[in-house]
Amino acid sequence: MAYQVPRMDELQSRAWLALVWSAELLPAALDAQLQSDSGMTHFEFMVLSTLQQAEKSSLRTKDLAVAVNATMPRLSRVVGKLAERGLLERAGGAADARVVNVRLTKAGRRELVRAVPAHIHLVKELVIDRLSAAELHALVEILEPLVGRLDPQSRVGFAAAQRAAP
């Protein structure tokens, strides 16, 4: 007999555990592929991707942290590593020395472009190609409202990055 979450019926338990384990296992699989093929973590990939989508490929660190759903200490460590590798640059804000802007470099854009094909191939292999068009529509209809509930101000993601001013 499969584990059943207390205070949930069988269907609720199966749905909840499938969601939780997907959320746990998918990032690990994406990390492994990106580390192997591109020498970066999935989080680093998301930082670079978010900067690429931002106006002028630049964001204030606090806006970048929000867009990638990271704490400032975590983002600061990753930005430092990516800057050491020449994939992004940090610069002080013109009007306020406390503001730090992060900008994607040409090398960062190049590494991101190189990483995308294998990453998308894995995403398709693990998720997209396993579902029919109807299941993909259902997944969107199921998950978008959950994301909206968890992020009612639409603070995370590419749209948030594009709205943020450098």
Automatic annotation (TrEMBL):
Domain HTH marR-type span(s) in chain numbering: 12-148
Coiled coil: none
InterPro entries listed in its UniProt record: HTH_MarR-typ, MarR/SlyA-like, WH-like_DNA-bd_sf, WH_DNA-bd_sf
Gene3D superfamilies reported in the protein's UniProt record: Winged helix-like DNA-binding domain superfamily/Winged helix DNA-binding domain
PROSITE patterns: HTH_MARR_2
Domain of life of the organism encoding this protein: Bacteria
SUPFAM superfamilies in the record: Winged helix' DNA-binding domain (SSF46785)
SMART domains: HTH_MARR
Protein name, per record: MarR family transcriptional regulator
Organism ancestry: Bacteria, Bacillati, Actinomycetota, Actinomycetes, Micrococcales
